[in-house]
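chain below, 110 aa
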Amino acid sequence: MRIDPWRLLGRLLVLLGMLALGAEAVAAMEAGSWRLLPLGELWVRLDARSLVVFQAGVERYLHPLLWDPILRAPVEGPAALEFLGLGALLLWLRRERDTGRAKRPPSSFG
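prediction:
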């Protein structure tokens, strides 16, 4: 059985989206009101230094305009929606399509 890396990535992104929703629920219980947490805020909670290093690396080694506005927009966007949306898109694009032919039953090892 061959594992499709794009479908695996899609599933991981959906899982990250659900975890981000869980983080939003915890934050909502603490604050008393619900708000969508930006990806950058979750990133800072996990490892603030790596976000700064990532931004500096993009601006220095790739191009400053690549960070602002292209990469900065998703970092400021709602993490749960971005992860869930991208994961669902990958899963939809890599879905197994029924070609109308009868599928062969799996072979047995015996």
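The chain has a mean pLDDT of 89. Residues 44 and 51 are 7 Å apart (CA to CA).
thats it, cya
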